[in-house]
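Researcher: I need the complex structure. Ligand is magnesium ion. Inputs:
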Amino acid sequence: MKKLIPLFILFIILCGCSFSADTDSESFFAMDTYMTVTVNDKDSKSAVKYAENEILKLDKILSAHNKNSEIYKLNKNGSGKLSAAALELTEKSLEYSKLTENAFNPAMLSVSKLWGFPDKNYRVPAEKEIKTALKTAKPDKISVKNNTVKLNLKGMELDFGAVAKGYTSDKIIRGLKKRGTESALLNLGGNVAALGVKPDGTEWNVAVENPDEKGNYIANLRIKDKAVITSGGYERYFKKNGKVYHHILNPENGYPAESSLKSVTTVGENGAMCDAFSTALFVMGKEKALRFWAESGLDFDVILYTGNGSMIVTEGIADIINSDLDYKIVKRSDYE
Ligand code: ADP
Ligand code: MG
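Model: Output:
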């Protein structure tokens, strides 16, 4: 009997809280997409509810399309006092726009509206209309002072569609951690973020969709405490006279980016940055994107899918990727 007691204690220590932990998962619609939150916790039900409520709250503040949101009102009035979250997202967006030399441009809503992307009322605008709207898409004409954001160009409208989901996942992961959760997976419309590892102690598996074949995957990543975010022209588009027009716009000319890439997946701890960069690197195209990755000195990795089963993977994720495709691994030292 004496021997049994320490063994029993060791068993409890090894199992950790899994004795009382359970898994709960909830799917819902927010930020114009389907989301699933999975939590493994002592009280996973309330943790999932917490995450869902926070996401819905952020959606209400950050949406450019909800008439009651802070961003909608800011766009309408040209200036506005923002809450902490909207202010932080604005500041981060300005930073990412600078870092990417405007390939990520959060001030493109007037242009995007011309194409009918926000309300799915698609059309091909006249070049003149695009040129006029593009004059309003200048992030360097946004000023932030004492919690007040000013859009210093008539007609300028902000849209955080390319960064809000990544930003939201960062906030939710931080909030869950604070509440004591150690294991969770957020899937915010394909923007995935993992907290810790799965209940069985192994990393979370995240599959990256194949833009050429719906329902198939180009790779699988084993992740812990990281976000995996994909952007591509295959997600939202319309066809006119046989030509495809997708939703990621080139801020230089206001047309859908003619990218040499089919999709860009970013992997890293900073979800907001990864989200902004997935869009920006898609706009940049293969060569510029790789150079940006190598020279920015920022902590993220990428999968660049160039189509027809070809892809490029950066060195930081070489050990956590699984793929049936042949791929090239690129190192930072290749760019010195
Ligand atoms: P998704 O949100 O569909 O997963 P992205 O993160 O790439 O994909 O964001 C695309 C959205 O961002 C578009 O629907 C549009 O609202 C906005 N957008 C389009 N082009 C740009 C751009 N160059 N920079 C910033 N935002 C953009
Ligand atoms: Mg993005």
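Model: Summary of the prediction. Residues 1-19 have pLDDT under 50 and may be disordered.
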